[in-house]
């Protein structure tokens, strides 16, 4: 158990809908990262938050948004869903930011299926 | 932006053979990390390399960080079926605010 909790584990929704994925980082971790993993593909970096502030953006679509709350949990909002958004969405947390940052701990992921 | 490439994408080996995956970054990295994702699982941290030319070993796994801090490799000696999974490298840029993953190398081991 990595200590990172993601909910829900599975989500099936229709095209055009909006969903919210939730991530609770490990206790004490200030950094949260979101990644998208399509079937048998690599990990696409979406966004990074540190202590409530956005720090870096990757290939995140405009239809997607995220935030990190004062209690450090994070939510990833996906709207106007398309079939191609079907993927495994991982959240990872680490203790901080900076070059000497320690490793990232991954949650179990949320498997999103858009039908 | 920063890009991290990993080769090969797939590798089939016979149990007992060696395996190597290579990672190359388009920019100089402050550090590089390696993760393993078992089928159906989530990535799990293996190791972090920070210094230029650094070499670290974990039992049958040997990790190297290039002199220019732009490339890295993971070598597994005498693979076992338990080594099956996808190995990802992940590079952190000098600003330290983005962990970019390579595409991963999926290792399959025939018993």
Produce the secondary structure layout:
The complex is a heterodimer of chains A (115) and B (111).
Chain A (H helix, E strand, L loop, with lengths): L4 E3 L2 E4 L5 E6 L6 E7 L6 E7 L2 E5 L6 E5 L5 E5 L8 E8 L10 E2 L3 E5 L1
Parallel strand pairs in A: 2-11
Antiparallel strand pairs in A: 1-3, 3-8, 4-5, 4-9, 5-6, 7-8, 9-10, 9-11
Chain B lengths: L3 E4 L2 E5 L4 E7 L5 E7 L6 E6 L5 E4 L2 E5 L5 E6 L8 E8 L6 E3 L3 E6 L1
Parallel strand pairs in B: 2-11
Antiparallel strand pairs in B: 1-3, 3-8, 4-5, 4-9, 6-7, 7-8, 9-10, 9-11
Report on this structure.
The complex is a heterodimer of chains A (about 120) and B (about 110). With about 120 residues, chain A is mostly beta strands. In chain A, about 0% of the residues lie in helices and about 50% in strands. Chain A has strands spanning about 5, 10-15, 20-25, 30-35, 45-50, 55, 65-70, 75-80, 85-95, 105, 110-115. Helix content of chain B is about 0%, strand content about 55%. In chain B, the strands form two sheets. In chain B, strands 2, 4, 5, 9, 10 and 11 form a six-stranded mixed beta sheet that branches. The model of chain B has no long low-confidence stretch (mean pLDDT about 95). At the A-B interface, strand 5 and strand 10 of A face strand 5, strand 9 and strand 10 of B.
Using the CA coordinates, give the radius of gyration of chain B: 13 Å
Element-level helix/strand string of chain B = EEEEEEEEEEE
Continuous helix count of chain A: 0
Q: Mind summarizing the main beta sheet of chain A?
A: 7 strands, mixed
Structure keywords:
heterodimer, A: 115 residues, mainly beta, 7-stranded mixed sheet, 4-stranded antiparallel sheet, globular, B: mainly beta, 6-stranded mixed sheet, 5-stranded antiparallel sheet
């Amino acid at each position: 158990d990595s200590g990172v909790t993601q909910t829900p584990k599975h989500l099936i929704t229709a095209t055009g809908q909006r969903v919210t994925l939730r991530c609770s980082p490990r206790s004490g971790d200030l950094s949260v990262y979101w990644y998208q993993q399509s079937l048998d593909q690599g990990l696409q970096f979406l966004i990074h938050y540190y202590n409530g502030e956005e720090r870096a953006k990757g290939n995140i679509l405009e239809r997607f948004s995220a935030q990190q709350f004062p209690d450090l949990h994070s939510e990833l909002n996906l709207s106007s869903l398309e079939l191609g958004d079907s993927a495994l969405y991982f959240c990872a947390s680490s203790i901080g930011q900076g070059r000497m940052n320690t490793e990232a701990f991954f949650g179990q992921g949320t498997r999103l299926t858009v039908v | 932006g920063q890009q991290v490439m990993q080769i090969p994408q797939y590798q089939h080996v016979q149990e007992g053979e060696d395996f190597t995956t290579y990672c190359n970054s388009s920019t100089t990295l402050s550090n590089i990390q390696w993760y393993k994702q078992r089928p159906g699982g989530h990535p799990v941290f293996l190791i972090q390399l920070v210094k230029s030319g650094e070499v670290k070993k974990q039992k049958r796994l040997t990790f190297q960080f290039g002199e220019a801090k732009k490339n890295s490799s993971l070598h597994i000696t005498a693979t076992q079926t338990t080594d099956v999974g996808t190995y990802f490298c992940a590079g952190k840029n000098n600003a330290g605010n983005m962990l970019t993953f390579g595409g991963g190398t999926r290792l399959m081991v025939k018993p």
